[in-house]
Design a protein that fits this description.
Elements (H helix, E strand, L loop, with lengths): L11 H14 L10 H16 L10 E2 L13 H19 L5 E2 L5 H5 L13 H17 L5 E5 L5 H12 L7 E5 L26 H10 L7 E5 L2 H4 L8 E6 L4 H11 L3 E9 L6 H14 L6 E2 L5 E4 L2
Parallel strand pairs: 3-4, 3-6, 4-5, 6-7
Antiparallel strand pairs: 1-2, 7-9, 8-9
Length: about 325
C-alpha cells in the first residue's frame, strides 16, 4: 500500500461532488417516493456553505494590505510614521511570500448576509444571495424558460460555480454558464459618479487561470462553462450568447452595470430573472439600473434579497 504524503488526497470540493454523485447512483430505497430531492438539497446546501466559506472559522480573518502613505500625511507626523512602518512591514512580508492577517471571530449573520469579505472561500455574496440564485435558477428550470445563466463580475468564481452546480444537480445538459470578468480587478472609476475606486485593491484581482482552477476543484470545469475575459464594454457587445434565463450583475460601478444591461438585458427571455448584487449598497449601480429601466419605460417589480441585492422577473 502506498502511503500518502501529508496534504495529499482529495480536496473538500472534490469530496462534496463525489458524495453527491454517489448518492444519486446508489440503489434507490424501496419506498415508492425515492428521496432524490433530499440528496440534491444536501449537495447544494453544502456547496453554498463551502463556496461562502461559512464552515471555516478562519474565513473571518482579514488580510492587512498597507498601502504607501501619501505625502499629505506629513501633516500628522505620528500617524504618518505609523503608516510608513506598516507599509514597509507589509513589503517585507510580501518578499518572504508571507501575508499579514488580523484574526476576527466568525459571525454567522454577517456571512449569511454577505457583510464581510472572506479570507478564504470562493464568493463574498453570502448565503442569502446564493439562496436567491438557487430560487431563480430552479424557477426557470421548472417553468422551462429558455436560456443560459451569466454573472458579470465573478471575483473567484464562486457564484458561477454554484450556477453550474445547480445545472448538474438537476441533470441539465442543454444550458451554459457564462463567466464574465476582467480577471484583473475593477476598472478605474469614471466620471459617472461612481462611489469608490477599488481598481488598486489586489483583493479583487483574480486571474482567469485561478477561476478556472476553482471550477476544476469542484469537478465543474467542462463544456457547459464559457469564459468572457476582458472589460465588459469590449466583451459583452459581441458575446456569442443567444438567450439568457438568469442575468446576474455584480459589476459595482455605473459603467459596468450599464454595459451589462445595454448588451444583455434584451437577451433575457420573458419569465427569466435579473439579479443586481449592488443595487442597494452602491448608489452608482442603482442609478444605472434606474436610468436604463426608465429609458425603456419599464417598471418591473423589484424585490429585495438582503441589504445589498435585488431581483425581478422579466415580463
Amino acid at each position: 500500500m502506498r502511503r500518502l504524503q501529508p496534504g495529499a488526497g482529495p480536496t473538500l470540493p472534490t469530496i462534496i461532488t463525489l458524495a453527491f454523485l454517489f448518492l444519486l447512483s446508489s440503489p434507490m430505497p424501496t419506498d415508492p417516493n425515492p428521496d432524490e430531492p433530499a440528496a440534491i438539497d444536501l449537495y447544494l446546501e453544502l456547496m453554498a456553505k463551502t463556496l461562502a466559506a461559512s464552515i471555516y472559522d478562519e474565513s473571518a480573518w482579514s488580510v492587512l494590505n498597507y498601502g504607501r502613505p501619501g505625502w499629505k500625511g506629513l501633516r500628522h507626523p505620528r500617524r504618518f510614521a505609523s503608516a510608513l512602518f506598516k507599509y514597509f512591514l507589509g513589503q517585507m512580508a510580501a518578499k518572504r511570500s508571507t501575508i499579514l492577517v488580523k484574526q476576527w471571530g466568525f459571525k454567522e449573520p454577517e456571512r449569511k448576509d454577505g457583510r464581510d469579505f472572506p479570507f478564504i472561500g470562493y464568493t463574498m455574496i453570502g448565503l442569502r444571495r446564493l439562496e436567491n440564485i438557487r430560487f431563480c435558477t430552479e424557477e426557470v428550470l421548472r417553468h422551462k424558460v429558455p436560456g443560459d445563466l451569466i454573472e458579470t463580475g465573478v471575483w473567484r468564481g464562486g457564484t458561477t460555480i454554484f450556477m453550474r452546480a445547480l445545472l448538474q444537480a438537476h441533470g441539465v445538459t442543454d444550458r451554459k454558464v457564462w463567466v464574465a470578468d476582467s480577471f484583473q480587478g475593477l476598472p478605474a472609476t469614471s466620471g459617472d459618479g461612481d462611489d469608490w475606486d477599488l481598481s488598486r485593491n489586489d483583493y479583487f484581482k483574480v486571474s482567469l487561470a485561478e477561476v478556472k482552477a476553482n471550477f476544476a476543484k469542484f469537478g465543474l470545469l467542462d463544456g457547459q462553462v464559457e469564459f468572457l475575459p476582458g472589460w465588459f464594454c469590449d466583451t459583452l457587445p459581441s458575446a456569442p450568447i443567444t438567450r439568457l434565463a438568469v442575468l446576474r450583475l455584480d459589476g459595482d460601478l455605473y459603467s459596468s452595470t450599464m454595459d451589462a444591461l445595454k448588451n444583455l438585458y434584451h437577451k433575457v427571455s420573458p419569465g427569466g430573472y435579473v439579479i443586481v448584487d449592488d443595487y442597494q449598497s452602491w448608489a452608482s449601480c442603482r442609478r444605472a439600473v434606474t436610468e436604463f429601466l426608465d429609458g425603456l419605460g419599464l417598471k418591473p417589480e423589484i424585490k429585495t434579497i438582503d441589504q445589498d441585492g435585488v431581483y425581478w422577473r422579466k415580463e
